[in-house]
Design goal:
Layout: E1 6-9, E2 17-24, E3 30-34, H1 37-47, H2 51-64, H3 73-76, H4 80-87, E4 90-95, E5 101-107, E6 120-123, H5 130-143, H6 150-153
Antiparallel strand pairs: 1-2, 2-3, 3-4, 4-5, 5-6
Length: 158
């Protein structure tokens, strides 16, 4: 699971958000979790791909699937945020020490093992991130106890 350590990434005016740190990599990079629509929009702009579209779709599906435990207005949405966190895929971003965006990943909810889930790992402009960032991708896989191989995770190699 992700740690509850928050880090500020970006120092060039590109991305000044606080994202939840997930894990570090052997090559001095770090994975962070994208948790808000604003973070997903910034990631899409920075990385020139459509992660925000997928983030929005999965968030809307998670919200629709929420069953409140109370019908009282003030109590109705108490568990909504936790439900969304459990139901949504994990959206992750790899950053270097300067905060530059390198790779974006979408893993099953809570990083779990779901053979039917389509894992997506892409670089800037949907490029193949494996040649340059395979060690960092493998570190993310180890963190979640899974293998993130190119054949399964990079959608444009099929």
């Amino acid at each position: 699971m992700t740690e509850t350590v928050y880090c500020r990434v970006g120092n060039k005016g590109q991305l000044h958000l606080i994202m939840k740190h997930v894990c570090d990599t052997p090559d001095r990079k770090s994975w962070f979790r994208i948790e808000t629509e604003a973070e997903a929009e910034k990631e899409s702009a920075l990385m020139d791909h459509l992660v925000a579209k997928y983030f929005r779709q999965h968030r809307e599906n998670a919200v629709r699937s929420y069953k409140p435990t109370s019908t009282r207005f003030v109590e109705r949405d108490i568990g909504l945020r936790a439900h969304i966190q459990r139901e949504m895929p994990l959206f992750l971003t790899l950053r270097d020490a300067e905060g530059s965006g390198l790779v974006t990943a979408m893993l099953p909810p809570e990083g779990g093992d779901d053979p039917a889930f389509r894992i997506i790992i892409v670089g800037k402009g949907n490029s193949d991130p494996y040649p340059e960032h395979e060690a960092a991708i493998n570190a993310l896989g180890r963190h979640f106890g899974r293998t993130l191989n190119r054949a399964r995770c990079y959608p444009y190699s099929r």
